[in-house]
Amino acid sequence: MGPNGRNEAVQAMQQIYVVRDPEGRVSGLSATAGEHTEPAMIDDPEVQAFMRELDIGLVRVLEDVIELLVSRGVFRFTDLPASAQDKLLFRKNLRSQWQAVPDPLGADEDLL
After folding, report:
1. How far is 65 from 27, CA to CA, in rounded Å?
2. pTM score, two decimals?
3. Which residues of 4-35 are buried (b: 16+ CB within 10 A; e: fewer)?
4. Which DSSP state fits 6?
């Protein structure tokens, strides 16, 4: 155990390295130091916010993969646990409502 009572192995796993964009925001994470990285801890608020954004993107990808697999008959939606079905249906409903809301700034998604 370390001087603060925590296991050094746990502390070492928490050390990560961040890449920052020109504005200073976290734009990437690495397990190893690199030329354009700086050390950070996994519980750093900026790192946590970046990881939440990554998780949101991954959730969207997983929803799309599940929809694709169901549409191709790889498995049935009803094969999923009821709690997963409920969450997926809820998010699908939210996404359909969100896409129906016009952008108040008039931005055109096709431009990206």
Report:
1. 25
2. 0.60
3. eeeeeeeeeeeebbbeeeeeeebeebeeeeee
4. S
